[in-house]
Amino acid sequence: ESGMHFDFQRARAVGLPACAVALVGTVLPLASGTLVVMGFGFTFFEGFAAGTALAPTSVGIALRLLHEAKSLNSYFGQAIITAAFVDDILSLILYNVLFSLSGDMSFMTFLPLILGVIFMMLAAAAGARLWPRVIEYGFSKIRERKPDAKLTTHHELLFGLMLVVLLLYAQLTYLCGTHLWGCFIAGMSFAMWKEAHHVWVRQTKRITCWMIRIFFA
Length: 217
Hints:
Blueprint: H1 8-39, H2 44-54, H3 59-68, H4 75-100, H5 107-129, H6 131-141, H7 153-176, H8 179-188, H9 194-215
């Protein structure tokens, strides 16, 4: 759902500043965490592990706070979301480095991450250019059978398509690092289609409420 709030137009404007914020937000926790832990007498490896654990930023929490403040679609709101997403990518690279410090580090260590980043770039471009055309073409070929219903035929098809893309992208990026990349990019794929967020929230709100209760139980 967080990816559906992504604004491609504003992302172009905030791209470089957001990447700079993400870089600082990754390096500072990593360096400070490493130095503090080493200051207590632990090894560099243990300090690096602590710094790596502090580096990630929660996209979900940032999204929720910006949404409640009604600032999600603002310039700085999109900058924060973009920076948090880039920060997660950098943090996963750090995790790979951390796991490789105890063994041999080679190009193959970073190959899944490289493939994952390439896939996300291609999938994001498809979300901006390809998916809106695919949905529009599909709707033009499939007759609307329930035009007056709350959940129309096109809405059912759209929800089914979103679910398939979510599972597919999540599985692909899971093999490259984490399923969270795929979930975010899947949402971005439908960010250009205005009805997508409404249809998704309507069909998943009951499940989401129960999942939130279980998570915080």
